[in-house]
Design brief:
The complex is a heterodimer of chains A (476) and B (216).
Chain A lengths: L4 H7 L2 E4 L4 E5 L2 E4 L5 H9 L10 E3 L9 H4 L9 H17 L14 H8 L7 E4 L13 E4 L2 H10 L1 E5 L2 E8 L8 H12 L7 E6 L1 H4 L3 H9 L8 E3 L4 H8 L7 H11 L12 E6 L6 E3 L7 E3 L13 H14 L14 E4 L7 H11 L10 E4 L4 H9 L2 H8 L2 E2 L20 E4 L14 E4 L2 H10 L14
Parallel strand pairs in A: 3-4, 3-5, 5-6, 8-9, 8-11, 9-10, 14-15, 14-17, 15-16, 17-18
Antiparallel strand pairs in A: 1-2, 2-7, 12-13
Helix pairs in contact in A: 2-6, 7-9, 13-15, 13-16
Chain B lengths: L5 E9 L6 H4 L19 H4 L31 E4 L11 H8 L4 E4 L4 H8 L4 E4 L2 H13 L4 E5 L4 E3 L5 E3 L4 H9 L3 H6 L2 H14 L10
Parallel strand pairs in B: 1-2, 2-3, 3-4
Antiparallel strand pairs in B: 1-5, 5-6, 6-7
Chain lengths: 476, 216
Amino acid sequence: MFLTLYDKLWNSHLVESRDDGTALIYIDRQLLHEVTSPQAFEGLRLAGREPWRISANIAVPDHNVSTKADERAIGLAGVQDDVSRIQLQTLDDNCEAYAIPEITLDDIRQGIVHVMGPEQGATLPGMTIVCGDSHTSTHGAMGALAHGIGTSEVEHVLATGCLIQRKMKNFRVAVEGELPVGVTGKDVALAIIGHIGTAGGTGYAIEFCGSAIRDLTMEGRMTLCNMAIEAGARAGLVAVDATTLDYVKATPFAPRGEQWHAAEAYWKTLHSDADAVFDREVVLDAAKIEPQVSWGTSPEMVTDVSGYVPRLVDMPNETARKGLERALQYMGLEEGMAITDIRPDVIFIGSCTNSRIEDMRAAAAVLKGKRIAPSIKQALVVPGSGVVKQQAEEEGLDRIFLEAGMEWREPGCSMCLAMNADKLEPGQRCASTSNRNFEGRQGFGGRTHLVSPAMAAAAAIAGHFVDVRNTTEVAA
Amino acid sequence: MKPLQRLDGLVAPMDRANVDTDLIIPKQFLKSIKRTGFGPNLFDELRYLDEGVPDTDCSGRPLNPDFPLNFPRYLGASILLARENFGCGSSREHAPWALDGAGFRVIIAPSFADIFRSNCFKNGLLPIALDAAVVDDLFRAMYSNEGYRLIVDLERQVVQTPDGQSIAFEVDGFRRDCLLKGLDDIGITLERAEAIRAFELDHKTRFPWVFETLEV
């Protein structure tokens, strides 16, 4: 029997199957943050239940935190908004009450939950990993089965150590060949979503394979798996290889000594068998992928930087035509206009998609010695964790951003979902390295264009979207 | 959880594809630590002309007169008719909490996003996936008949139209049982505690590193 990577991970965590096709799946690690956990703890408390296995959990505040240094310096007291502060305090209180390990706001390891987890080795290959956040798919980059869940499921995992699941189908997305210089994991993710659509992966676990994926760094793979949910797939996966093992070995919570050898031997089996059968397969030619820019209000509304906003006459049906009309109106764009004629007012480099050290380096390489265009009203660089921030500062990247006229902030989710003070004003247009361009996502009436960090940096300098490969720095 | 067996309800439209959970309930309302109170902010950015602020009374806010859910003919609706990929994006359970708070119990669409779908079942809401052509017919019938109602019978797994059609739908047996009886699935899972413990012991032998305590 030939198995896919997903089949193997499913089988190794299957407690029992039910007749109706649902199953109890054992959860190795649950990540908690302030926004989707308070109601789960409240439910646990009201039912008089105790956590099944405390050590399965680790918590970190990220969604609601301030990214301003002066506010962060005084901890929770620096959170200006009362409702946000109560939510952050509630996470601290719940973790204390149930003795759940928490990386607190003042800890250098604090950061976006999907940056912190892999960075600390709190999430490891072969694990089942859940979090009340749809971008939990990120951790699949390590050859783990990781996906987002709702708050009731957070409570279910807290109380039972398990999740009730229906097995997903297997979807193989292969990207073969060599990516052009300047084309990143983000561009691959957006190109795939543009190809299969935002519902293309619904009901599937997507395994990303092919030589272009094997050539990606762990950061690039995390960016890719992060956006599996934007293609509708709860889980994205990449097989374990030397790149994975090298990355994991350097993390603080990685197994040591004898346990490392045992773990490594097991992790090396975490790939799909050569003859495994997938329910669906798509193959993309890496050489043909260009830097991507989203133009609409759904991640599938995306095209090459050399491309154009679609025309209404080209829409296949009425629903699509109405969708395009609404998107154009919301985004304030003309049909058929060139992507390079779109002029952002705001630049956001950050989020669980693109805030790791490699992302910081890619943006800084483009910005080095340059100034952002005078038309840019705000440019935020928000590292994904305190560890990323420290590393970037050691490399002098913060100086490059500051000298370019950008702001260098403290770690958090920030303008990706605008729960804190970092948000767009109505009508503002943002070149953003985040994952969602939904209406109002980055602020009421805000307009989002999804791009890679290098593309955001290039747009910041030019004042409009531009192919980063036409700037000399990227080749360096 | 509130049980759902049979619902005779007024139908209201959400006539666009790929409705994401940010649209269903915008992020500023996610700061609440409660499960209730989200109803007035359902589709906040479409429903009102101003920007919604958490913990404020919505009764005095300017309503968007062009948003169908504000039309008097749809007031009191408990069945939402929607398009493909409803509930995509963020995993926020605040989305079904807001739908529930606004009085909806059933959502009919050609397809749903996975996480949203499972969040619905956890909150006594029934997502029903029907063929796109059937949903199209329902939209047409609803638009041309004011006061258009449907009967949803979960026991028999059918939607009944006013002209006597019965449309069958699929639902997981376990989810159906929980919804029919209003059962808490944590309680059901804990009945299998022994099986979980046995699995865990074996799992720990095979993958001991998973069970190391994270000393933060």
